[in-house]
Amino acid sequence: MTTTIRLAQQPEADALLARSPLAALVGMLLDQQVPMEWAFTGPYTIARRLGGDDLDAHEIAAYDPEEFVALLTAKPAVHRYPGSMAKRVQQLCQYLVEEYGGDASAVWTDAATGRELLDRLLALPGFGKQKAQIFLALLGKQYGVRPEGWREAAGPYGEAGSYRSAADITGPESLAKVRSYKQEAKRAAKAAAAPAKAAGTTKRTKSGKPSKSSPTE
Questions:
Q1: Can the peptide bond before residue 76 be classed as cis, meaning omega within 30 degrees of 0?
Q2: Residue 212 Cα distances to 2, 77, 195, 216, angstroms
Q3: pTM (2 d.p.)
Q4: Backbone dihedral angles phi then psi of residue 113, each to the nearest 5 degrees
Q5: pLDDT tens-digit map of 164-213
Q6: What is the DSSP letter of 214?
Q7: Is the pLDDT at 74 greater than 50, yes or no?
Q8: 196-208 burial string, b = 16+ CB within 10 Å, else e?
Q9: In sequence order, what E strands does the chain have?
Q10: What is the pLDDT of residue 198?
Q11: H or E stretch including 93?
Q12: 90 near 65, Cβ under 8 Å?
């Protein structure tokens, strides 16, 4: 069965994500502090600048660090923070070479359970709990990687019919729904934090009356 991916919203970049496990991992790694389409177009941009049609973990792991930073920094930059992301991509590839012989798919092909797969993803450089769970959900929902208990291991991102993350994006419509969900979540978090922030900026004056104009010291 051919996998169809629509994360980058760009045909060539999405085709690479569909056929390349390493590209999928790198795209997930880049998916922070930039729009999702920008992040998941990154692997295609890196591959083109390296002169190939796919990413090679051995090549990236051994690349001169300064030159790799320059490669990601060249306009249009691969990420908003190309320098730090270049380092993270190299660290990821070095880990894959050391632990999996450079084969990104080996991270998940023989994982017996969702919990085991989550643990493997958590061990990857640059993958915290949220990123690991989102990628696990992406593997299950769009790549057909479904070890026992994968939805549970992916937490809320594994829920069927949800629009929480990159795992749920299959086209422009679902991308809009995921973006709307994220915006609403940010608004809710901001609203929840407002009372605590207001309390923290309350300071007693000499007369004993509260003053909200000065932050706490």
A1: yes
A2: 60, 43, 12, 10
A3: 0.85
A4: -135, 165
A5: 999 999 988 998 999 898 888 888 888 888 776 666 655 444 444 444 43
A6: S
A7: yes
A8: eeeeeeeeeeeee
A9: 203-204, 210-211
A10: 62
A11: helix 82-100
A12: yes
